[in-house]
Amino acid sequence: QVQLVESGGGLVQAGDSLRLSCAASGRTFSMSAMAWFRQAPGKERDIVAAISWNADNTYYADSTKGRFTVSRDNAKNTVYLQMNSLKPEDTAVYYCAARNFNIATIDQAYDSWGQGTQVTVSS
Fold this sequence. Notes:
seven-stranded mixed β-sheet; globular; mainly beta
């Protein structure tokens, strides 16, 4: 497994930007597909974005396309989520997750999880 620690969450206003970071250690990070999920109160945990081990392939949920960008720096064992034009409906706890090699879009496919970071967007 990979140990994951998220950072960068906070309270912002609608229209603002935030960048989340997820620092990894343990299993070879460069061979892991990485994903960001989020969970709002009373709702299921949903995928936000994902990136393959070599960054050749990315995935975005429809609700985040054009506003969020996932990237990774394998030299720093870190994956990022740049979030622009934030909306109140983006408010959630954001989780970083890892699995071997290829992207998956369901949370059950990921075997390593961070503790989550809160993002709150006020209107």
